[in-house]
Amino acid sequence: MxxxxxxxxxxxxxxxxxxxxxxxxxxxxxxxxxxxxELYQKYMKAKFxxxxxxxxxxxxxxxxxxxxxxxxxxxxxKRLISCQESFNRLIKNVNAxxxxxxxxxxxxxGCFKKCHxxxxxxxxxxxxxxxxxxxxxTI
Length: 139
What we know:
InterPro entries: Com_YlbF, YheA/YmcA-like_dom_sf. It comes from Biomaibacter acetigenes. This is YlbF family regulator. The chain is mainly alpha-helical. The protein folds into two domains: 3-102, YheA-like fold, CATH 1.20.1500.10; 106-139, no CATH class. Helix content is 74%, strand content 0%. It is built from eight helices and no strands. The protein has helices at 3-16, 18-31, 34-55, 62-73, 75-102, 110-113, 120-124, 126-129. Helix 2 (18-31) packs antiparallel against helix 5 (75-102) and helix 3 (34-55) runs antiparallel to helix 4 (62-73). The longest helix is centred in the middle third of the chain and has 28 residues, at 75-102.
């Protein structure tokens, strides 16, 4: 099968996934609430600032924690953040599955017996977070 055709099918499957559908619903609900929308914008700005500080090995300010706590008290925002995390986990798992397929991880036990914790599955956390992916006999 053509790789680009398979990529299109994968994209369509992701678009049809429960994780994506729930994320779209959560985003739509948030957009209807001005206060939640403004808090979300502050949260995202603070999150970006936190990530930038972490990359530069600087201390994370308490600003993010304060905004995050406020965000998690808002039910719409809490749901959106949860949906984003679920969708991100899905994408991470898809990427990890592709990565160890490309690396040709052995089908005879792979990461459980031989990799010492540094194969694609282990470093990407697939073994612990793959949520029932059973087509690969090494998981």
